[in-house]
Specification:
The complex is a heterodimer.
Chain A lengths: L4 E3 L2 E4 L5 E6 L6 E7 L6 E7 L2 E5 L6 E5 L5 E5 L8 E8 L8 E2 L3 E5 L1
Parallel strand pairs in A: 2-11
Antiparallel strand pairs in A: 1-3, 3-8, 4-5, 4-9, 5-6, 7-8, 9-10, 9-11
Chain B lengths: L2 E3 L4 E5 L4 E3 L2 E3 L5 E8 L6 E7 L6 E3 L2 E6 L4 E6 L8 E9 L7 E2 L3 E6 L1
Parallel strand pairs in B: 2-12
Antiparallel strand pairs in B: 1-4, 3-9, 5-6, 5-10, 7-8, 8-9, 10-11, 10-12
The chains are: A mainly beta, B mainly beta.
Chain lengths: 113, 115
């Protein structure tokens, strides 16, 4: 096990609602990255947080937002949910040093109806 | 822009056979890192290997081996004497060295080992 935990494990929402997903980093890691993995696809980078600041963002709209807390845990918030937001959301923790290995949590499966 | 291609969508082999998973990447960076991750049905991505662009030595870890060829931009993964527990989706990924840990993943190869 990596020591990265995520909650909840599964979630069902309806279109237009808002959702918050949570991630607890591996001990000693100061960086959290979030990825969206649609069914049958590879994970897509959403954004990364380093010491509570956003440190890079992928091609996702502003309704995807995040937070990192002083203990390096993190939240991913998605507003105005759309059907296409249904996916596995993965968080990964690492140390920010360029090319460092990211260790992934078990993910949260979100279904938007 | 970075890109990772895993042309093999699905592979099935009989247990104890060897199998190679292909990965081809594109990047303009001179320093970069390549990774392989395993994703069992539970969904969690399990780290297998990290290789930087300056280290072209092949690596072996038990039944797993990796062949990095910069000349062909390939980073292939071979499982020797496959086992049923090797059944999973395998992802190749690429990151840069600019202090941003963004990983660019391929679309994955679903490997099924038939008992």
């Amino acid at each position: 096990e990596t020591g990265v935990t995520q909650s909840p494990t599964h979630l069902i929402k309806t279109r237009g609602q808002q959702v918050t997903l949570r991630c607890s980093s591996q001990s000693g890691h100061n960086t959290v990255s979030w990825y969206q993995q649609a069914l049958g696809q590879g994970p897509q980078f959403i954004f990364q947080y380093y010491r509570e600041e956003e440190n890079g963002r992928g091609n996702f709209p502003p309704r995807f937002s995040g937070l990192q807390f002083p203990n390096y845990s993190s939240e991913l918030n998605v507003n105005a949910l759309e059907l296409d937001d249904s996916a596995l959301y993965l968080c990964a923790s690492s140390e920010l040093a360029g090319g460092e290995t990211q260790y992934f949590g078990p993910g949260t499966r979100l279904l938007v109806l | 822009a970075q890109k990772v291609t895993q042309a093999q969508t699905e592979i099935s082999v009989v247990e104890k056979e060897d199998v190679t998973l292909d990965c081809v990447y594109e990047t303009r960076d001179t320093t970069y890192y390549l990774f392989w991750y395993k994703q069992p049905p539970s969904g969690e991505l399990v780290f297998l290997i990290r290789r930087n662009s300056f280290d072209e030595q092949n690596e072996i870890s038990g039944r797993y081996s990796w062949n990095f060829q910069k000349s062909t931009s390939s980073f292939n993964f071979t499982i020797t004497a496959s086992q049923v527990v090797d059944s999973a989706v395998y992802f190749c990924a690429l990151s840069d060295d600019f202090g941003n840990e963004k990983l660019t993943f391929g679309t994955g190869t679903r490997l099924t080992i038939i008992p």
